[in-house]
Amino acid sequence: MIPLMKVHTPKGIGEKLQEVFDSGFLTEGEYSDEFEKQFGEYIGNPNVSLVNSCTSAIWLAGHMCDIKPGDEVITTAMTCMATNVPFINMGAVLKISDINPKTGNVDPKSIESLITDKTKAIVIVHWAGQPCDMDEICEIGRKHNVKIIEDAAHALRATYNDKQIGNHGDYICFSFQAVKHLTTADGGALVCKSDEDIKRVRKIRWFGLDRQFKSASRWEQDIKEAGYKLHMNNVNACIGIEQMKYIDKLIDKHIENGLYYDKHINNPNVELLERSDKSKSSSWIYSVLVEDKKRFQKYLEDNGIASDVVHVRNDQYTCMEDFRRDGLNGLDYFESRLLNIPVGWWLSEEDRNHIVEVVNNYEVN
């Protein structure tokens, strides 16, 4: 079976992790500082704060937007539940934006129609690694003085207007979970547009303390704003540093395979997602749309190809029932047809050709 997901394991990672344990410093420190620096250089924005998960990054972004109970957050239901859980727990009122049924990304016109004087943030997801329309979305944010939070869990090294994701919205949340392009086993990062914001975020992630405080003890400083314990430790950061040695090669392969599918899959029964001239996808996953996705999934399985929806619409969950609404036609169309096929770095040329052949031979009747 050709797998849909696979965890990349750097060579010699066991020896590197032993070095961390032998050092006696397992929490935030030398390794996390180095990984934070490398990641900022990689995306072209030094305002990076490593955290223990992308969910924590999203929560921190919401905290920075000063979201309180009763405040409104415009978001998408076509995402991992981790995108929306932080705002539910903050007591926010979620306003579900519709999506473009041809891309899976939020529809800017739907976003703007939901804005009120209670709106504190607009949350977007770059579905499958294909960037949203950041020009229009950021303009909406400026027009209404509302912050933009990007869930970029799928989108490491994706670009919009020739700039990497991580350089557009106010707060950008990356995931280093097990099967992402870059994994630290688990972890994440919050990237900020503002220099002032990143200084505050780096304190909040570690009780409210400045880790760079110069004294015999960090605990001698005053804590002006109570924080949390959301930081990444040296163990996860060590894995991240080792993964960075391979990251371009891994993402290159995802992108190459995605472009190959774009060019060679040609079946009227299998709808491919639309691409934009303004952006380039990182192809973390490769989504296709079919009318009977369970039948198509069984067909793929019978031909040795794993597939899955990966994420389901969040508004199907009971904890989201208060935020359900009618008229989400784009979401209805997309989610009812969505299936993802293997596109990652682990595919051989033979695998890739087999997938294209099988998909192109799929018949409805």
Question: Could you characterize the architecture of this molecule?
Answer:
The protein has 365 residues and is an alpha/beta fold. The chain has 12 helices and 13 strands. Helix 1 (13-23) packs antiparallel against helix 8 and helix 2 (30-43) packs parallel to helix 8 (234-244). The longest helix has 18 residues, at 247-264. The two termini are 25 Å apart. The mean pLDDT is 97.
What labels would you give this structure?
7-stranded mixed sheet; 3-stranded antiparallel sheet; 13 strands; alpha/beta; 12 helices; 14% strand; globular; 365 residues
End-to-end distance: 25 Å
| Structural class computed from helices and strand pairing | alpha/beta
Strand order of the largest sheet: 1-9-8-5-4-2-3
Question: What is the count of helical runs?
Answer: 12
For the biggest sheet, the summary is: 7 strands, mixed
Strand fraction equals 5-15%
Topology:
Layout lengths: L12 H11 L6 H14 L4 E4 L2 H11 L7 E5 L8 H5 L3 E5 L10 H7 L4 E7 L8 H11 L2 E5 L7 E2 L2 E2 L6 E5 L12 E5 L2 H10 L29 H11 L2 H18 L6 E2 L6 E2 L5 E4 L3 H10 L26 H9 E4 L7 H12 L5
Parallel strand pairs: 2-3, 2-4, 4-5, 5-8
Antiparallel strand pairs: 1-9, 6-7, 6-11, 8-9, 10-12, 12-13
Helix pairs in contact: 1-8, 2-8
In short:
By secondary structure, the chain is α/β, with parallel strands linked by helices.
